[in-house]
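[agent] plan:
  1. take the single chain provided in the ticket
  2. run structure prediction with default settings
  3. attach structure tokens to the ticket
  4. add a short note for the reviewer (M.T.)
[agent] executing step 1
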Amino acid sequence: MSSEKILPGNTEKLGATYDGKGVNFAVFSENATKIELCLFDDKDNETRIELPNRSDDGIWSGYLPDAKPGLRYGYRVHGPYDPEHGMRFNPNKLLIDPYARQIDREFEWNDAFMASNPGDVNSMNTADTGKIAPKGIVQDPEALKAVGTVEKPNVPWEQTIVYETHSKGFTMKHPDVPEADKGKFSGMANPEVMKYIDEQGISSVELLPVQAFATDKAVSDKGLSNYWGYEPIAYFAPHPDYGDPVAFKKMVNAYHAAGKEVIMDVVYNHMGEGDSYSQMLSLKGFDSDYYYVHDQNNKSMYCNETGCGNALDMTKPMARRLAIDSLRYWAEEMGVDGFRFDLATVMGRGREGDPNNRDFDRDHPFYEDLRKDPVLSKVKLIAEPWDCGAGGYQVGNFQKNWMQWNDRFRDDTRRFWCGCEGLAAKMAQRMTGSDDMRRDGAEKSASVNFVTAHDGFTAKDLWSYDMKHNEANPWNNTDGSSQNNGTNWGWEGYKDEGLDEFRNKMVRNLEASLLMATGVPMIVAGDEFNRSQGGNNNPYCQDNEISWVNWDKITDRDVKSAEMVGFMARLRRDHPVLANASYFKGETVDDKGTKDITWVRPDGKEMTGEDWNAGYAKTLSYVLAGEKTKKDGKPADDDFMVIMNAHNDFVDFKMPPAPNGQKWEVAFDTAHLGAEKLPREKREVLGGNYRAEAHSMVVLKAVREENRAKERQQQNTSVLAQMKNRHFSR
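[agent] step 2 finished; step 3 output follows
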């Protein structure tokens, strides 16, 4: 194409937009002096065309008649190279359109991408990246329309159980996923995969980053790659290795058809361009001074509030617009149900026009834009409410439309099950919604409870290793947290079946605590069947069997553990008094003086203040009255009693009378695999006493007669057991 064919474009919509007759290209740069659109044929021959017009607000545009979907393109941006004033324009670097809906390849590290020369951070690196840089692909809007849209399930928070997993790692070893679909969006939508997720009681699958991302030099130099994906380079484009936009939308539709949600883990706190002088891939080249937060004492350097080299400056309107536009694209056009924001406090830092102020502001314009947006105000928003900067720990301080990761739940739950003294009161607070996160008198908990996450030990490794074992990573085992609040129970690593099964029970205790607590539970994929990473608690760069879900190593005991955890999740979702987001108040719920929650001692009597202050106490037990749910035309639920015994010995509990007058029966007992499958007569508590084994958690229920017919029956053969029998039985 020649430059004579390009026409003035429109600036209403950024990106490359096909209208059936041609393509409009529009990009933003406040400080550029010239922008060239670069087009590539199938042999990577490049044609450069200068964009003909710039609007007063810095949007550059041009319209190419006869251009069609599938066209590959990028940009070269001209302007001052003046690092001391934050300017790093370098037309030698081909740049990815920040609004590109698809890119043609994965990023592969090459030193040519460096913005500056080695050893001289203020000198321009003139190596050309036109041949090696990822290119945008012009999308046909009809392609996504042809996929259709399945109505979103809109699962309420009270019914939400989040399952954090990885689009690639979840299916790479799955035996029922065809080879061509392993590691792909299509693999995540495989019917056998989805059957398992459904049986585990999951409502919402949360995918680690799927927006196109980069691998940095330190990792690449070790022959490794970015596995987690927290280095985004194109906010609208799916990661090419996982599939294209059509494949992603088909996956979302499959989940919606099954009544399940898809939540994306997103990274808008920084971009995968490192510090100010490392790789130049997109925003750094379009306008480094505009998009990134700079050290005001040395503007050649970025402020590193993220630990990843840079921080996006959300005080800038066009930076916020980029984030909001892309989030809306994923929510509206792709059907995504919600977003978990990595280091969410970074986006709430700063005041426009005051570059020296980087304090957190809960009413920051970015948060306000989300709250007021007609689309994004209706999706699930989950904050990781901390960052690496000063004053970055903001748990409990986000607006009411946010749910928040609760690391206090994680840490107190781990310490309680380790047998630490003086944790009963803290554990009670965690099991009832963590009111220390309560905002402005809110009635519902803001807590997303978790005991493990992608970042850290798996649940099994937490009970198998005292020390991290990150030797496979590039940092000589100095990366990853050294404070994990776990224990190896006397042996580092794996030893024998007896200790192994004890550790499995401790995993079940963690999962049971999580699923019985007020708030929204988040389970990490594979914890339910004791997945191990060999003690690596930071495998962000391990795109291999260290990180992939190890379906092929599941034992019969692992299957039974997963069956129990799945039962717990379904029990929670079936019973409103358990699937609860509202705070318990200890207030009466009927005319008999029954409290919504009653804290009881092992002798069956209600706890006193003195009992709470007994530092030696390592048990926690309480009764939940199903009468609490009898309002607004809803029937009363069954009653439940929760027993948590972190002692090294059994504890006999005297059962207080069930509020509804029925008999107590075992719902599940983490010390007795398969107890949840026994017939009712074998689950009844006889004699009014129940022995809670050492290091175990028990849930009892008293079923109202009117609810008996609605009880869910536990399947004898689970999806996981069937899979194992088909592929791995000896």
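[agent] step 4 note for reviewer: The longest strand covers residues 22-28.
[agent] ticket updated
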